[in-house]
Recover the amino acids of this structure.
């Protein structure tokens, strides 16, 4: 399918989010104009890529945009997202909007309350035009499900969009949204950012409230965060998302989240970068992927950084086993009831059944040993940050793959023993609870996007944004547009 040729992209949708916010607040653009421009872009491109699902009634949306304009006319702004079209990821609940979690089990579920992050975006003036597509329960790095189908790559619709925030990544890359929310447990912000040549920030644990959920203490892997085409836009959304919420006691009481809207420019001369690469050959990579990532390291040197290869002294296979145990434990705890009921079990995809059954077999000692392994890994990473200011490694081990596959079953001749083994590169940051920015790394030999992760010390989200901004200015990779935008 090709884009609707009736109209080219509007100048409005080509604006950066920061410029769009200024134009709305200066009343140079009305919220109705902005909404209509984005709805037209969605109508033009979404049939090609299937990024935004559960669209809302256009007349109702225009009435809401009119209310936003009336508020500005009275001198009332709800915040930096005032009048911004948004499509919350279809994993966490949104009041009054279907929340399927990509599963037919929940295809008719309409929650009564927002997740905290959506509550903040709505309160900040966003207009929810639909949902962004996600794989079932967010499992896997490829966005397809039995409810809405497959989301396709922004640069080549025959390829995967990544996941689980695949709909968000594609919508941002194709200017169907000015920016977007996502979540990340195992690369769900980072993989689609790498696959679609945009930025995705896995925030440090506690920076952005993720929930509320039935369990608010053990769950320390899934985080919410922003996706955008540049770092100031990413920071704009983070300034709305971040901050303590008493319903989630492990969120941080930090500085005013408005710190993320401060100027990002910094003198980075002398900044020390540790290049983790493929962890000494432990991570298989598609031919050309590692070289593409290595070539982009020169842009750190351009901004005054030093780059040095480093290999942590750790049992990476032991780290992987600890990760899959903790992940299965968490997923089974939240979803075992769906497995016990034969009716809902029959509707679960095989990967969900695999996770739940693994989790149910784990003992308390198994979980404790995995948590101890995680703790040991954090201490190793802490030690690395005494030598380096930031660590960098690939954001994905493959280029975007055939969208018709369920997942890559082999990389460069090495068989993958689970549905998510091909995503192992995202585990180091997740297991250490560190902020990790997925940033464009350029395009491989086949013309497909690649990405790197810039990993910072604990709770150094703002510092990661600052170096990411300097890298973006030096590299220019993110300014390469999809051919679908022509």
């Amino acid at each position: 399918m090709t884009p609707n040729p009736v109209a080219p992209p509007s100048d409005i949708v080509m604006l950066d989010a920061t410029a769009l916010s200024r134009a709305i607040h200066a009343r140079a653009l009305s919220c109705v104009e902005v909404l209509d421009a984005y709805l037209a872009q969605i109508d033009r491109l979404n049939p090609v890529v299937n990024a935004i699902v559960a669209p809302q009634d256009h007349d109702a949306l225009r009435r809401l945009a009119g209310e936003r304009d009336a508020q500005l006319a009275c001198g009332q702004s709800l915040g930096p997202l005032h009048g911004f079209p948004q499509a919350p990821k279809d994993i966490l609940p949104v009041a009054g909007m279907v929340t399927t979690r990509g599963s037919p089990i929940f295809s008719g579920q309409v929650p009564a309350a927002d997740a905290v992050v959506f509550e903040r975006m709505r309160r900040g003036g966003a207009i929810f035009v639909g949902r962004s597509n996600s794989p079932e329960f967010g499992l896997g790095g490829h966005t397809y499900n039995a409810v809405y189908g497959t989301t396709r790559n922004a640069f080549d619709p025959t390829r995967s969009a990544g996941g689980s925030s695949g709909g968000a990544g594609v919508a941002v890359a194709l200017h169907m949204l000015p920016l977007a929310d996502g979540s990340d447990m195992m690369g769900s912000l980072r993989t689609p950012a790498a696959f679609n040549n945009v930025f995705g920030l896995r925030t440090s644990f506690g920076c952005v409230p993720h929930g509320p959920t039935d369990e608010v203490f053990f769950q320390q892997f899934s985080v919410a965060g922003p996706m955008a085409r540049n770092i100031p836009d990413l920071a704009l959304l983070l300034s709305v998302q971040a901050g303590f919420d008493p319903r989630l006691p492990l969120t941080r009481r930090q500085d005013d989240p408005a710190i993320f809207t401060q100027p990002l420019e910094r003198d980075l001369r002398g900044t020390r970068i540790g290049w983790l690469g493929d962890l000494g050959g432990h991570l298989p990579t598609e031919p050309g992927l590692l070289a593409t990532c290595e070539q982009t390291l020169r842009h750190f040197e351009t901004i005054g950084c030093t780059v040095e290869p480093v290999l942590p002294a750790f049992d990476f296979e032991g780290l992987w086993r600890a990760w899959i145990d903790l992940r299965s434990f968490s997923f089974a705890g939240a979803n075992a009831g769906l497995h016990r009921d034969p009716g809902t079990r029959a509707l679960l995809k095989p990967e969900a059944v695999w996770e739940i059954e693994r989790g149910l077999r784990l003992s308390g000692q198994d979980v404790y040993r995995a948590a101890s392994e995680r703790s040991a890994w954090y201490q190793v990473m802490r030690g690395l940050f005494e030598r380096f200011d930031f660590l960098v490694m690939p954001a994905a081990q493959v280029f975007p793959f055939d969208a018709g596959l369920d997942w890559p079953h082999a990389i460069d001749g090495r068989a993958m023993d689970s549905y998510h083994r091909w995503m192992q590169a995202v585990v180091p940051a997740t297991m250490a609870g560190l902020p990790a920015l997925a940033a464009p790394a350029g395009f491989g030999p086949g013309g497909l996007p690649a990405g790197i992760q810039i990993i910072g010390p604990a709770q150094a989200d703002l510092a990661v944004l600052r170096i990411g901004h300097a890298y973006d200015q030096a590299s220019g990779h993110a300014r390469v547009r999809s051919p679908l935008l022509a």
